[in-house]
Amino acid sequence: MRSSHSLNRLGTAFDDDRLVADAGLLLPATLAQHLGLKELVNEHLDLGKAPGRANVGDKLLTLVASALAGGDCIDDAAALQAGGTAGVLGFAVKAASTLGTFLRSFRWGHVRQLDAVTRHLLTRAWTAGAGPGDAPFTIDLDSTICETYGLKKQGALHHGYTHVRGYHPLLAVAAGTGDVLMARLREGRANTVRGAAHFLRETIGRVRSAGAMGQLTMRADSGFYAHAVVAVCRKMDVRFSITLRQSSATRRLIEAIPEDAWIPIPYWIDGGADVAETTYTPFADQKDAVPVRLIVRRVRPTPGSQLALLTLYDFHAFITDRAGEMLELEADHRRHAEIENAIRDLKDGMGLNHLPSGKFAANAAWLAVQVMAHNLARWTARIGLGAGIVTTKTLRRRLFGLVGRLTRSARRLTLHFPARWPWAAEFAAALARLRAIPLLA
User: Fold this and answer.
1) Which residues of 239-266 are buried (b: 16+ CB within 10 A; e: fewer)?
2) What are the extents of the domains in the chain?
3) pLDDT-derived band of residue 149, with 50, 70 and 90 as boundaries?
4) What pLDDT, in 10s, does the model give residues 410-436?
């Protein structure tokens, strides 16, 4: 059609059963099939006599595929039933109304069954080539607020410490890859550290059983500065790096560091940041209290800011039991902030910005679904493309959102994609690598 033709003359028709919306979902669907995700769900998830008990594997994979396609609510899964889309997914796509019944059938025990699914899935993916092997491995621990707007959502009736109504899940993320190692939904008013020690213990066990054989390190901000968290790390032979929750006593200790002990580091203001180290005994009232390294970064306030009128330096300190050069450890601790990229991808790339049900357990299952979809996207990039961190939006634009057409010839189906697609070679290479993974079903 010449560009001079008016778009008003272009006819439309929704009549092609062979067209496939989001045909690029063939990549994560192939990975899920080779990792045996459907079989894991069928084996570990038992909803008893609940209305949504049938075909749990198909229902959960429908929600995962919908999230990968950009769906952020239950009704968005209906797009997977259009045209020939179901033909590239490898499972029976279920209706949105069925999925709602499925999620509402969950109780907390069923959510823990999904935890078993994600644990085995992580092990299988790492065995297939996505794991760290015997290299040092860092776990980033954090929490986030998932804002809600309804007034009848279980666990989100009250405002939390941020004065926002919503849920407050715990997250453990693999540094450097963005894999979500574990996630657990909590009510919105939960304190940051509530349940963190048990959550960390389970995460460490999960990482070890999945095949991480190197030295483990846990990084966290001051919300997780607690004796119970440190005790778990020491008991399980995990190094820790936790931002100090400052008090007047620790402030005096920091200010007592000699001036010649401060080492300048690169900063956007010339001479604006320095690092020094001292020794500190956290949780001194506990029987197992021992001195650790206290590494401090001091930063000059931005010139002209209100803070600059009140103080000479702003101090950022953390405790650690790691061996190593001070400046390297300080820079590594600051990289804990990278967990925010994974949280952003869960919310904006997947569907964690919207928890759809009024029932707490249903929303906890929804969180597990988003984690599975997020990890499948990360593993597709790492195993299939041989790439590092690629955001879900990038994968969706270049690969997952491809439109295709199914044809049959000599009893063989062929999926046709648009000619001259800029990332056709990457798609073909990724599909070949994912198909080379042994079937684990």
Assistant:
1) bbbbbbebeeebeebbeebeeeebeeee
2) 14-122+356-441
3) confident
4) 888 899 999 999 999 999 999 999 999
